[in-house]
Amino acid sequence: MAKEKTEVSEKRIVVLEGDGIGLEVVREGVRFLKAIQDRLPFRLKFDRFPIGGRCLRKEGLPILPQTIESCQDSDAVLLGAVGDPRFDDNPPHLRPEKALLDLRASLGTYCNLRPAKIYPALYPASSLKNELVAGMDLLVVRELTGGIYFGQPSLRQNGPEGRSALDTMIYSEMEVARIARWAFRMAGARRGKVTSVDKANVLKSSQLWREVVGEIAEEFPEVALEHMLVDNCAMQLTRRPTQFDVILTGNMFGDILSDEASAITGSIGLLPSASLGDGAPLYEPVHGSAPDIAGQDKANPIAMIGAIAMMFQFTFGLPELARDIEKSIEVTLEKGFHTPDLALPGGQLVTTEEMTDRILEGL
Ligand code: IPM
Ligand code: MG
Q1: 121 assigned to some structural domain
Q2: Is residue 207 part of a domain?
Q3: Measured from the CB, is residue 100 less than 6 Å from ligand 1?
């Protein structure tokens, strides 16, 4: 009798290392994924492309059209970080960061989830006093493909009064409504509170933002909504970060507040992010390329491994595996293993690679 052919499904992951420590953390991310291949109900396949400063040096562009196409056709994109000070004086369309903005726009990843949770073992690493950070567990839901990052016109010009430059902060009702629904759904599965952050005392775009978020809130009666001005939110994060559950905000405010939240959790090297939307999802650490420590095996791989956990949760329908990975990160930190960004007294300093190995061991 002919043996039935068993098809094992395959997931194709596009790997974009980028610049600086992006290379190291992506290397660890891929090693991590290969090491847990046996636990997965599908085969992983990896395709690699340059992006950012390295792509600029090789190809003269921050990202190639075929890379974008390959990402669009993938099951998920794993990205390290882009940014290289050698290109600081380049015009905006020839900067490494442009690759990331193009990628977000062409994948339509309008929803950026940035969880910021403090591990008890890391209270002493926080920029705030222990008693203020204990229990901090928030999620920034950042709009990622609109607002001032993408608004047109955006230009520089020369006139009778010298040079001037213009960026446009624009949000449509549709853009606000769809990201607001994400925030309310996420809050419904957490502690049931959304803080919508804007600058409605000054900006028209924020007034619309506030109006639309209020309307969408009516679809989610089980979730409490409060509005907060962005300057106050920046302050409240340092005064009492535990008051926040879900912070819903636009592209630029979300960029700023998520960096602030990360410092409170102890290190920006810990925070993962998921960018979701209509097409292929993008998973990456919140941190940048950190050229000052690049190539020294000092980078913290936890943000990257956390991003992989988010990939299992949001894209591959394996929430239990995601929880196991998060648990192993927590236990590894409790055992006192630290990369140099943490380096707490009494801990044991480990390299990027050793940190990954410890987390794998704990799985
Ligand atoms: C981030 C980064 C990017 C952003 C840069 C690199 C364009 O800071 O993902 O937070 O501003 O969105
Ligand atoms: Mg940022």
Answers
A1: no
A2: yes
A3: yes
Co-location of 219 and 325 in the same domain: no
**Ligand 2: distance of its center to the CA of 159 in Å?**
32
User: pLDDT value at position 343?
Assistant: 87
pLDDT at 245: 98
Write the pLDDT tens digit of every residue in 46-73. Answer: 999 999 999 999 999 999 999 999 999 9
Same domain assignment for residues 261 and 279: no
Calculate how far, in angstroms, residue 40's C-alpha sits from the geometric centre of ligand 2.
Answer: 32
Whether 231 is catalytic: yes
Segment 337-356 shows an average pLDDT of 95
Domain range for 223 = 127-265
Q: How high is the pLDDT of residue 1?
A: 47
For 183-187, the CB contacts below 8 A with 24+ separation are 183/141, 183/246, 183/248, 184/216, 184/217, 184/219, 184/220, 184/223, 184/225, 185/220, 186/113, 186/139, 186/141, 186/246, 187/220, 187/223, 187/245, 187/246
Q: How much is the pLDDT for 7?
A: 64
Residues 61 and 177 both lie in one domain: no
Catalytic residue among 231, 278, 327, 335: 231
Instruction: Please tell me if the CB atom of residue 140 comes closer than 6 angstroms to any atom of ligand 1.
Output: no
Give pTM, 2 decimals. 0.95
Over the stretch 135-146, which tens digit does the pLDDT of each residue have? 999 999 999 999
Query: How much is the average pLDDT of 15-21?
Result: 97
Atom 9, ligand 1: residue with shortest CA distance: 286
CA dist 74 → 10, 23, 48, 330 (Å) = 11, 20, 12, 30
Same domain membership, residue 214 and residue 146: yes
Identify residues whose C-beta is under 5 A from ligand 2, the ion. Answer: 255
- Nearest atom of ligand 1 to the alpha carbon of 284: 9
Q: Alpha carbon of 213 to those of 96, 169, 210: distances in Å?
A: 33, 17, 5
Domain edge (last residue) among 205, 238, 265: 265
Q: How many domains does the chain have?
A: 2
Whether residues 78 and 199 share a domain: the answer is: no
Q: Is residue 122 one of the residues assigned to a domain? A: no
Mean pLDDT of the chain: 96
DSSP 3-state of 54: helix
**Residue 259 annotated in active site:** yes
Query: 324 in ligand 1 pocket by Cβ < 6 Å?
Result: no
**pLDDT computed for residue 234 by the predictor:** 98
Whether residue 272 sits in one domain with residue 143: no
Active site residue 255: yes
pLDDT of 3 above 70: no
Q: How many Å lie between the centroid of ligand 2 and the Cα of residue 256? A: 6
Residues 183, 257 within the same domain: yes
